[in-house]
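Annotated sample (chain length 155).
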Amino acid sequence: MVLNNVGLIVKNQWDEIPNRVPGVCLDEREFMPNHIHGIILIVGAQFIAPHKKIQLVGQTKTNKGAINRAPTLGEIIRSFKAITTRQIRLSAMEKFGWQRNYYEHIVRDEKSLLRIPEYISTNPLRWEIDRENPRRKGEDEFDRWLATFKTRPES
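Output written by the structure step:
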């Protein structure tokens, strides 16, 4: 994939996510003509402040402590989209906008952990059958595989 100016902005901002969001790492990623495939690893809360007993006149209160929680995927994607949209509109396309939402899939087992990065890295080879290609010709086997997770009951 040869990235144009917009693609380079998107790539640069994607690669900056771990620098902006503590506790986040990026894994396999691929930039397509009109979308991105990527794996975002979110590490749990970094610290929990200790409990403290606070003595007030005639009473004792317990401060339960503060939790430094991990960012949500929605917060990460929202920030990424906002930053890239602003940069793209300032430099290239005044009317640029992302689709309203995003697709997500939680990696739950080793089979998925092996399959998804392979799918992402080989995605450009399947552009003709990619579900985001407006001129799509056929069905992607990954779509069929992914559909099996949607029909399984949650465990």
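Annotation: Residues 73-91 form the longest helix (19 residues).
Annotation: The chain has a mean pLDDT of 82.
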